[in-house]
Amino acid sequence: MKSPGIRRICVGQKFVGQILGGLLAAGLFAPTATAQWTTPNPVVDFTKRPDGVEVHQKDGVLRLEVKAADLLHVTYSPLGSASPERPSDGVLVKKDWPAATFEVNSDARAVTLSTSKLRVVIERETGAIHYIVPEGATGAGATGPGSTGGPMRGQMLTTDGYRSLRPVEVNGEKTFHAEVSFSIYGSHEGFYGLGQHQAGVWNYRGETVDLSQENTNITIPLLVSSNGYGIFWNNPSRSRVNNRFVHALYLSAEVADKIDYYFIYGPGPDAIIGRYRELTGEVPLFGRWAYGFWQCKNKYQSQTELQNVAAKYRELHIPVDNIVQDWFWWVTMGEMKWNPNYPDPQGLIDTLHKEHFHLMVSIWPYFRPGSATYDKFDKKGWFIAKTVSKSFHPLDQALYDATNPEARKQYWANANTALFQKGVDAWWLDTDEPETEAREDNILTTNKMFLGSGARYANVYPLFHTGAVSDGQRAASDEKRVFILSRSAYAGAQRYGITAWSGDVLSDWVTFQRQIPAGLNYAMSGMPYWTTDIGGFISGGNLNDPKFRELFVRWFQFGAFSPIFRVHGTRYPDENELWSYGPDAQKILVDYDTLRYRLMPYIYSQAWQVTSNHGTLMRPLVMDWREDVEAQNTGDEYLFGPAILVSPVTTQGATSRTVYLPQATWYDFWTGEKQQGGKRIQADAPLDKLPLFVRAGSIIPLGPAMEWSTEKPADPIELRIYPGADGDFTFYEDENDSYRYEKGAHSTITIHWDDSARTLTFGAREGTFPGMLPEHTFRLVVVGKDHGTGIQESESAEATVVYKGEKTVVRP
Fold first, then answer.
1. Distance from C-alpha of 501 to C-alpha of 481, rounded to nearest angstrom
2. pLDDT below 70 — which residues of the chain?
3. Which pLDDT value is given to residue 149?
4. Which secondary structure element, helix H or strand E, spans residue 597, and what is its range?
5. Whole-model pTM?
6. Beta-ladder partners of 452
7. pLDDT tens digits for 194-236?
8. Rounded distance, CA 626 to CA 115, Å?
9. What confidence score (pLDDT) does residue 541 get?
10. 399 and 436 Cβ atoms separated by less than 8 Å
11. Among 25, 53, 107, 409, which is most buried by a count of CB atoms within 10 Å?
12. What pLDDT score does 640 carry?
């Protein structure tokens, strides 16, 4: 017998049975699928509202708000419930949208809401919601399976067929457990996103994923379907995405007042991610230095050690922009006071700056007793949870409440005084899931915080913590762009200038393999900046072991084509610099480091696309070949920007690897040889060679070799053109730091390759900024076999253009 407390709607068998009949006939649906649709929740009446429609059902109230033609906000509340706004409502998502155009119609069978891109059919008998792309709309395919004409005609995306709110008590609060079931209409539909997880899974079709913050797992509740839609699950409690049943996808949350999600129609992943960022926050541009190389290890022990490492990099002329001070530089955790091993912090920072280094420092959200800072936070009630023994113990600690605005303000004030005002350039916000080691559950779930029950807001801590530092720095200065390395993130954190890293992962080949799908799913979650501890962190690697040196080299090659390029880890002996791995490895490492810096004009221009046009730098193949089943299921390759196909080598001893080339013409980056796509090939991959292919129609600017990102002006530029298709590139420049770019202090040059006419057109430069070069020298290299290849500057060019800001057409 069903509990009378359960308020649910399910798809009845009468109307949907017609759809299922079509699916059965097509062999796309199993007969047992009808078992999930058993208890209808019929529509009683409905009301058209200025922003959508409100539907009263037998057991609840359904609201559809039209935010845009391709974006709907869907909520379902129990009868008699006001579903009060919580303190975080409106903080996590954009609430004010321009009025959207839509229509609401009804007949005896359904209530239909229509926009120019979506048709949403709500069955009167059952309450089921069908999401359909009408015929003639952008991206619409053929008539959907099971279509019966009328409002059901078009491409069926999915059906929200079951919604449940079950009364529960969690962490002392009476609330609901929420669950929704979505139907799947195709055997090849793939699911992606959901943050970063470490099971090595790329396509989540057939998988179950827990959305709960933990070291090495990051929760971003955006699910992207290859069928052309995305679902943003707007619930910050611990949740689950369950697709272990082949025809149904279940989304559930531990704590809820209502079911709350956003439905996004793409159909392409770029469009879905664009709407997600518009909803949760746009991505700022990092300083140019942040896209260079980051030197780090666990850990530098003194001021002298940091200065010596920086000096040796400059002495050896190895490219690097950044150096990192990891944990325990302090006297007492939380106090932000340098310990005696750093006798002159200001002198340290000044010295590094003179050597053209930026310094990142690790700070934690945990405080330990024994300082005035701890006492102040404790007295103010700004701690969420404390572990304090009767007598002082080194593991005694307390987590500050980042959801409390006063605590956030003081946290930043401490960091500002001790670090930012002295010139620290970047922030390492470690353990901000918050730390979960030694227990399965997130520490928040059994505690209270300023917002309310920690169980209700279990996943939002990193959002508020990173926001404290980002907002604080933005208020303090417009001269230095925020850069935060965070071990965790939540929806919206991208607006705070963060890069997440994959956490404290092991130093082995299996773990390395798993980082690639982890990073690709993070990118599909709308989060553009991500990195790993190159070489792994835990268990350490023996620098004298040839097998570990091989692992480090392969991981480093992958890192050179990650959005942020950073080494880290625990090593034996206690070194982790590029000269630590022997001369043979060092040569390979420096080569890829050099290539990263030569690609800086390409990378920085693509970073501008992330900021200005919702771009994604680390692009899974499904983003560009959404309907290609091979691309849907390839999670160990990706595009770096729009042009470069990267295929990391993750097998010990491998000298080749299988590479899938999607449908296009491709050039081997190292040889210039052409390959036709739509097939798998065996690519040559000795230890010094990462398989790289460039798509025909690509235009790639390479700058001069540099030891840091602003050592020289980005000139001359070697412009490599890959013929075989038309191509476009937007070349972006600014002051390299400061937020004046947001006020227009930047320039762009559009570049177009007309393949049939064999002409390259530079558009007139748009914009200006202080220090802009009045002219650029572009060396045009049309890539072919053994020409325009590899890391080094091409010996010859088809043409040289001195560009002075005016439209220029040239035939190279």
1. 19
2. 1-38, 83, 87-90, 138-150, 388-395, 437, 540
3. 60
4. helix 583-598
5. 0.94
6. 449
7. 999 999 999 999 999 999 999 999 999 999 999 999 999 999 9
8. 24
9. 82
10. no
11. 53
12. 98
pLDDT the model gives residue 9:
34
Residue with tokens 């799913």: 521
Query: Residue 562's closest CA among 299, 191, 292?
Result: 292
State yes or no: is 257 an active-site residue.
no
| 242-275 pLDDT, tens digit each | 999 989 999 999 999 999 999 999 999 999 999 9
Residue by residue, what is the 3-state secondary structure of 420-438? HHHCCCEEEECCCCCCCCC
CA 309 vs CA 325, 354, 402, 687: distances in Å: 12, 14, 35, 27
Residue 504 annotated to the active site = yes
425, 430, 624, 636: the catalytic one is 430
**Per-residue confidence (pLDDT) for residue 143, from 0 to 100:** 37
Would you say 326 and 361 are in contact if contact means Cβ atoms under 8 Å apart? no
Q: Which two tokens stand for residue 283?
A: 């991505």
Q: Which of 59, 214, 435, 504 is catalytic?
A: 504
Terminal-residue alpha carbon distance, the chain = 77
Selected catalytic residue, list 70, 125, 433, 628 = 433
The residue assigned the tokens 């922009």 is 321
Structure-token match 């799947």, residue found: 184
Q: Are strands 293-295 and 322-325 parallel, antiparallel or unpaired?
A: parallel
8 A C-beta contact, residue 462 and residue 433: yes
For the chain, percent helix, then strand, then coil, each to nearest 5?
Answer: 25, 30, 45
Q: Does 471 participate in catalysis according to the annotation?
A: no
Q: Which residue has the tokens 């790993």?
A: 532
Question: To which residue do tokens 């059919």 refer?
Answer: 121
